[in-house]
Structures are given as C-alpha cells and as structure tokens.
From TrEMBL:
This is GNAT family N-acetyltransferase. PROSITE patterns: GNAT. It comes from the Bacteria. Keywords: Acyltransferase, Transferase. It holds the Pfam family Acetyltransf_1. Residues 3-165 form the N-acetyltransferase domain. One of its GO terms (molecular function) is acyltransferase activity, transferring groups other than amino-acyl groups.
Amino acid sequence: MNITIRAATPADRDAIVALHKAAAVTPGALARAPEEVTSAYAQNAINSDICLVAVGAEGLVCGEIHAKRETVALFAHVLGGLTVAVHPERQGQGIGSKLFEALIAWAKAQDPAILRIELAAGGGNPGAIRLYERLGFKQEGRQVARGRLPDGRFEDDILMGMLLL
Ligand SMILES: CC(C)(COP(=O)(O)OP(=O)(O)OC[C@H]1O[C@@H](n2cnc3c(N)ncnc32)[C@H](O)[C@@H]1OP(=O)(O)O)[C@@H](O)C(=O)NCCC(=O)NCCS
C-alpha cells in the first residue's frame, strides 16, 4: 500500500467533502448524513488544530482525520472533537490506523503537552470501536440514546479515551 499522510491544506477542501459524503453513505458510521457534509464543514475540519489527509499513489485523498485541542485552561491538555473517515473502497487496508498513528505522534510532540485524546463512537459501529481499542483507546462510558437514526431507532454513543502520560 502506497499511502502518504500529510497535513491538509485549503486545496483539499472539495476532496474532503467528497470523501466524507462517500463514507457517510454507510448507515451508523459517521454522525453526519451525506447532505450534512458541506464545504463549511470541510473548511472547519482543515482549520482544526490537527487535520491530516491520506493520499494514495494516484494522488487522491482517501482518508482524513481531524481533532481540536480544548481551549478552556482546565481541559487544555485534551484533544477532542475527533472525526475520522476512510473512503469505503479503501477501508480495511490500514489507512485509518496510519491516520491515527500520525495524529497520536503529532499529539505527543505538542508543547504544552497533550495528555489525553478522546472520541465518541456509535454503539452500532463495533468495527470502529475494535480499531480504537487496538490503537490504545479505552471505553469510558456510554451516552444512552445519544443518536437517533433515520428509521427512528436510538443508538448509544460509546465514549473512549487514551492517556498519553
Ligand atoms: C472506521 C474507519 C475510519 C477505519 O479505517 P480503516 O482504514 O478502514 O481501518 P484499518 O484498515 O486501519 O483497520 C481495520 C479495522 O478497522 C475496523 N473497521 C471499522 N469499519 C471498517 C470497515 N468498514 N471496513 C474494514 N474495517 C473496518 C475494524 O476493526 C478493522 O479491524 P478488523 O480487521 O479487526 O476487523 C473506516 O472504516 C471508516 O471511515 N468507516 C466509516 C466512517 C466511520 O465509521 N468513522 C468512524 C466514526 S466513530
């Protein structure tokens, strides 16, 4: 697999929109439905404290991860608001893992230090939860009925955290 992980730039905005729209088609994966993935959303992702894209040999963006450092002093060691997406045709090839490894390496290099990374995963997304546990995240809690699917069913959110102490 020939994948490069690099910082996103404003020129990646449309590619990030297309990627998230494609990944959002799978029900219960990303929080946003395809129609909720907008240019403004992608721009906001690029403006996050960390936004990385995975680029294939053909030069296409096939994965993206972004997160934000908390701004309140009490929580300033926490990296949250994390979202990750890999194009459906490229899932299961190690791209998500590579994006996380790069994000964790970036977090470990920050000064002042980032000491905690947190995320939430839909309870109906066991594959993603398994991946996050393999990367070192621990399940910390469950928000009951946090999500409501288009068919009216509720879904819990699983809160996960990783300490970099
Ligand atoms: C979750 C996601 C980012 C993982 O990226 P990836 O490149 O597929 O992951 P990797 O190849 O590095 O690792 C594979 C692992 O990811 C998990 N996984 C989650 N969704 C998967 C999918 N659709 N296909 C394959 N693996 C998936 C599995 O645990 C798998 O490990 P396994 O071999 O033990 O089953 C990606 O599948 C994706 O974008 N899914 C749709 C959007 C989404 O669910 N985002 C996360 C919201 S919390």
